[in-house]
């Protein structure tokens, strides 16, 4: 890339790469050169994953077969974006990918938090906070609202834990009141409370 296309920017991580082209013609030229280079060294580009993507947004309104791609756990695609003045526009932005979200959701389910009634809330926080904080730091760097449903689901598991552990909080009203007091008194006790401290209505 440096030798043949010095003006074309790109990022690479292990065997994944994204190349930024200014036109479809340039994209086809770079892709052909990359395929040839791979052939010279006995390799080939992945036939299913290698594609030319049109970065569609509010300014680029043309149509194309592919208008999104996934890189390092983020899916880049057209998304609604709000400016600091409240105006909405369409940008080509990253957010956590469906595959990454599904993998994280499966991990959260595997914790079976609502069955851990033999341990204290402090023990729960020590166990899950480092992991949840890591997800927030990485996947929340862009379009953090895509993480909110997942964080709310963690809260729902914790609410179920609360109601199972304390008999006096079996009722929904009392459990929610206790939850709201805990959030007000210790808003950073669980990592996700920094962004999402509410519980879904169905829990």
Describe what is shown at a glance.
The chain has helices at residues 24-40, 98-111, 121-139, 148-165, 172-185; strands at 10-13, 16-19, 69-71, 74-82, 88-96. The protein is of the alpha+beta class and 203 residues long.
Summarize the topology.
Elements (H helix, E strand, L loop, with lengths): L9 E4 L2 E4 L4 H17 L28 E3 L2 E9 L5 E9 L1 H14 L9 H19 L8 H18 L6 H14 L18
Antiparallel strand pairs: 1-2, 3-4, 4-5
Distance between the termini: 53 Å
Strand order of the largest sheet: 3-4-5
Q: Assign an overall shape.
A: elongated
Count the beta strands: 5
What portion of residues belong to β-strands?
A: 5-15%
Structural class: alpha+beta
Query: Kindly state the mean pLDDT as a whole number?
Result: 95
The percent of residues in helical segments reads 40-55%
Let me know the largest β-sheet.
Answer: 3 strands, antiparallel
* Tally of alpha and pi helices: 5
Q: What Rg do the Cα atoms give? A: 23 Å
Low-confidence stretches: none
The topology string of helices and strands comes to EEHEEEHHHH
């Amino acid at each position: 890339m440096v030798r043949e296309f010095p003006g074309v920017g790109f990022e690479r991580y292990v065997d994944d790469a994204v190349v930024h082209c200014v036109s479809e013609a340039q994209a086809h030229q770079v892709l052909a050169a990359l395929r040839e280079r791979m052939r010279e060294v006995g390799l080939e580009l992945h036939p299913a994953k290698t594609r030319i993507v049109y970065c569609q947004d509010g300014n680029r309104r043309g149509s194309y077969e592919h208008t999104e791609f996934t890189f390092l756990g983020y899916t880049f695609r057209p998304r609604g974006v709000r400016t600091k003045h409240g105006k909405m526009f369409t940008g080509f932005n990253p957010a956590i990918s469906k595959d990454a979200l599904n993998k994280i959701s499966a991990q959260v389910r595997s914790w079976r938090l609502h069955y851990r009634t033999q341990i204290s809330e402090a023990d729960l926080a020590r166990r899950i906070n480092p992991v949840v904080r890591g997800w927030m730091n990485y996947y929340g760097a862009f379009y953090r609202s895509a993480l909110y449903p997942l964080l709310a689901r963690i809260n729902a598991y914790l609410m179920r834990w609360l109601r199972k552990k304390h008999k006096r909080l079996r009722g929904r009203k009392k459990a929610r009141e206790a939850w709201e007091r805990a959030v007000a008194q210790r808003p950073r006790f669980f990592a996700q409370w920094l962004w999402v401290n509410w519980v879904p209505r169905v829990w």
